[in-house]
Amino acid sequence: MQKNQREQIEFQEELPDCLSSLNADKPIRLFCQDECRIGLMPTIRHRITLPGVGPIQTAKPGYEYFYLYGAIEPDTGQRFFTEHERLNSNCFQDFLDRFSKAFARSHNVMILDNGQFHKANKLSVPSNVELIFLPPYSPELNPVERLWQDLKDQLAFDFHEHLSSLRQKARTVVSRYTDEAVASLTGYDYLLEATSVL
Asked: How far is residue 56's CA from residue 60's CA, in Å, rounded to a whole number?
């Protein structure tokens, strides 16, 4: 077994104990966090066509983009998103501060990847947020990746000349998600088992 696989298994096995050992004066909730870049370069997906006929896609290279920062609660499907122009520690700090206020009545454990801006020395993690980092190179353990894939599937083949129209389309898609749909996409067994100890 490779080192990365061992680390992933250990992470999943140790998560329930990690959560049950937390001392918090508020209800503990488990969230998973990630970022997604959305830009004017059209998202391409496979399409079924007649034999010998390729799918037709309007395309014009565009290099403008924005980022969605998101956190989801796999158990309930509740979620929180913000839009930012960049992927850096300043934007992540803004996301954390706003997330903390949105879920002020709970102690929020946030599972996330090892991006450098997630670990910047200048970050001030709010008192009701606790960060737990995934093993390196383990996107398959973060269910937010599935939500981003579904979002991009719904944006695929759309052609937008301006970033403002793409932003609006992305907002519309995000607003249509229900708690049930998000929980269905992101309710990984190891996370649901871990939250059963809370």
From this structure: 13
**pLDDT at residue 195 above 90?**
yes
SS3 of residue 75 by DSSP: coil
Q: How would DSSP label each residue in 124-174?
A: ---TTEEEEEPPTT-GGG-THHHHHHHHHHHHTT---SSHHHHHHHHHHHH
Q: Which domain holds residue 183?
A: 25-43+60-195
Give the Cα separation of 58 and 79 in Å (integer): 33
Specify if 110 maps to a domain. Answer: yes
Per-residue pLDDT of 73-84, as tens digits, reads: 999 999 999 999
The per-residue b/e assignment along 74-85, b for 16 or more CB within 10 angstroms, e otherwise, is: bbebbbbbbebe
pLDDT tens string 111-120: 999 999 999 9
pLDDT at 88 > cutoff 90: yes
How many domains does the chain divide into?
Answer: 1
